[in-house]
């Protein structure tokens, strides 16, 4: 399902609100200690509280996220999925480029 995003090129990683209409058949949440978590340079193992939010996955890699505009923080989970980006020559859009195993962070909301 096509979804538009604004990408902060100064951020160390991309984060997405996965709780709101995020549907994907290729979504994967890497477990703590996995190669993906090491690449993402995570600092802790994420656990879900008893009254967990719908998209919470236990034993996944956690990241502290900060909104660069509001400076509010939240905790997110490292995730992996396929993304497709439209290539361009700078003037004209071209074909879609598929990027498998793309790592990003799921946030419960935009902090």
Automatic annotation (TrEMBL):
This is Xylanase inhibitor N-terminal domain-containing protein. It comes from the Eukaryota. It comes from Opuntia streptacantha (Prickly pear cactus). Signal peptide: none annotated. Coiled coil: none annotated. Residues 2-108 form the Xylanase inhibitor N-terminal domain. Gene3D superfamilies: Acid Proteases. Belongs to the peptidase A1 family. The lineage of its organism: Eukaryota, Viridiplantae, Streptophyta, Embryophyta, Tracheophyta.
């Amino acid at each position: 399902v096509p979804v538009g995003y604004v990408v902060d090129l100064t951020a160390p990683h991309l984060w997405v609100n996965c709780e709101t209409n995020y549907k994907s058949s290729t979504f994967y949440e890497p477990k703590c200690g996995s190669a993906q978590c090491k690449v993402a340079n995570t600092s802790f193992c994420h656990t879900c509280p008893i009254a967990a939010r719908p998209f919470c996955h236990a034993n996944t890699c956690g990241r502290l996220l900060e909104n660069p505009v509001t400076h509010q923080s939240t905790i997110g989970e490292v995730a992996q999925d396929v993304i497709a980006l439209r290539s361009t020559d700078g003037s004209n859009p071209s074909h879609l480029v598929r990027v498998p195993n793309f790592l990003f962070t799921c946030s419960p909301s935009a902090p």
